Request: fold
Amino acid sequence: MLIFALLIFSLEGIAQKQRFPKPEFGTGYSQPTPVTPEPRALALEYTDVFVLLIVLSLASWIAIKNRSRKKMVWLSVFTLLYFGFYRDGCICSIGSVQNVALTIFDPGYAISITTLLFFLIPLVFTLYFGRTFCAGACSLGAIQDLLIVNPLSMPQWLRQILGLIPYLYLSLALLFAATGTDFIICRYDPFVGIFRMDAAFHMVVLGIAFLLMGMFIARPYCRFLCPYGVLLNWMSRFSKWHLPITPAACIQCKLCSDSCPFDAIDYPTDEKLVKKRIWGVNRFLVYVILIPIWILTGGFAGSMAHTWISKANSKVYLAELLIRNPEVQNDEKNLDVQAFLSSGKSMEMLVSEATIIRQKFYTGCWIAGGFMGLVIGMTLLNQIIFRTKYDYQPDKGNCYSCVRCVSYCPVK
Amino acid sequence: MKNKGIVIFLIILTIVIVTVVTLDYYSSKPDELPENPYALNLTSFEKVDNSQIIYTEIRDFTINFSEPAGICCTKDQIYVVGDQKMQIIDSYGKLIHEFKFDQKPTCVYTSAQNIFIGFRKSVSVLTGDGVKIMDWNSFSDSTVITSITEKSGIIFIADAGKRIIRKYNPEGLSLGVIEGKSENEQIHGFIIPSPYFDIAFNADGEFWVVNPGKHALENYTINGDLRTWWKATSVRIEGFSGCCNPAHFAFLPDGSFVTSEKGRVRIKIYKPSGEFLGVVAAPSKFEQNSHPPDLATDNSGNIYALDLDKKMIRQFVKKEK
Reply:
């Protein structure tokens, strides 16, 4: 760790230097807060990838082999300090989803190799070891996890309804990124302002609200918002080695049943309940048949909403604004309008660009709506699918591998 | 209900979160934005305390130029170039001579024997009577000549396009260039973002060059070795700001620097050490965000500013104490 710290400080010396002296604005001028941190030297970016690999390896080892909650907590603290406060929370794997989408749909944008690695490495680790990224390598997860005080168990129906939000958030994030509209995951990251200690007031309120909520609803952002969590959930379901609650045969002592603050422990299947729902075969068939209808309905609903959603794009909004209120061109205080007028572009060019973007939104909203329809259809289908479980075991998709449950297990 | 208080608290937090996100989303629309809180109010920097103004304008005379470009002066004559001509006028504005050229000059310098007219990519050498002796044309395509000076038979030509100072003998033979580079990492050549690159010798024969990108004035030996430099980066009256300032400078007989700036157009004086001394002409005297006036001084310490916007020469003298 000491060598690593020395490496970090020595690399600071090769970070970018100002070619010119910064303008001296020491006369009462308040500088705008930059949206993103200053770029880092390439060597430091690769160092970050290296650190991510080390932290993920350690988290996986702790979760699967060492099974020490204490060590996982200390690793979370390191992650919070390094990826959160030191690295200003950027770039993070969660936000990298948008960079990947943008690089796919915008030929003019090339994702950096380090950003791509930040996107891919946690997914690969999850495919092998479960969501150990969430347990020890995610700064957003760490800050919430360390502040869990009195976690309440939520009813399943509420969890499942709220559990749809990450899919919706992911759909919108990809849609907005692909159309070059906005990086909403970064914009509404509730904790990044805390990490940088320079957030606007309302973002501080947002961050504090999430942290206060997290005292009673464990990891609210991770469970009911995180769009990257959707991908991790999928990967984790197929993970080769996942944290087991018990190291040997489960003795069904039920001691672990209430240990998970995230309600991510599956109980043994209740055979009586299965028998009662034997009529569910017909229901299953109906739900399967309904899935394409859900997809079409979702796609159609999305396409109907595309006009409204596309207003999130500044060009579309500006074009509509100038058509609806041409007099706004005379508003010298309207920075966006004045920036457009001074750009030399004609109104026709703006409208043409806005039309192309809106067409992209139309297609994107069809896909996003269809995806949400699929998610709803599959969620309903899952209500009537019983996978027989004999032991108390982690819900592989939703378990964060935080190792809390392990200490409750009397089996050694 | 179990945990009723906590549930109410959570509902309130949920409402707060939704409200914050909704308000942020809608408040960032072009017609919903608040007034720019980060607008830089430059007007406040244009105000100059009267006590700092140590010169006064005693005379100005309109010149017959549509695009004046450069000025220099001798004991009793002022040389102005612009359009496609050079005018020699006396210190009261009376035209003495006028010479025509086939291209637009950018700068002018008079030595004891000759007049050097700088064009964008060439230099014409004239006798004191205005008879052309020779043209120097062997410059680069990207050359932009902005200033000429001379000492001990060596003519120095500032090339803003190539960011170098060219040295020539009186016959037009190249004697090398000064690149302003040094092993000292603080000095890395001339930074010339716009075609304002001035050079001059002071009364002690010291060669000074403005490095506008660094807001600095640098003193070189004739061989091009850096001897000393000073800089003043600030938006306040004491310093230079923007991409590249000062745009022009000249020397008073005591070695003080007279500087003119673009953007926030103003003329100031710095001591030979580089310490700010006072203001010659405050921004209120010029059209702002416009051209910087070219400067000339005479042996009496008078300052002549060629106002490119008002097409006039403005004469400033030191205020009586």
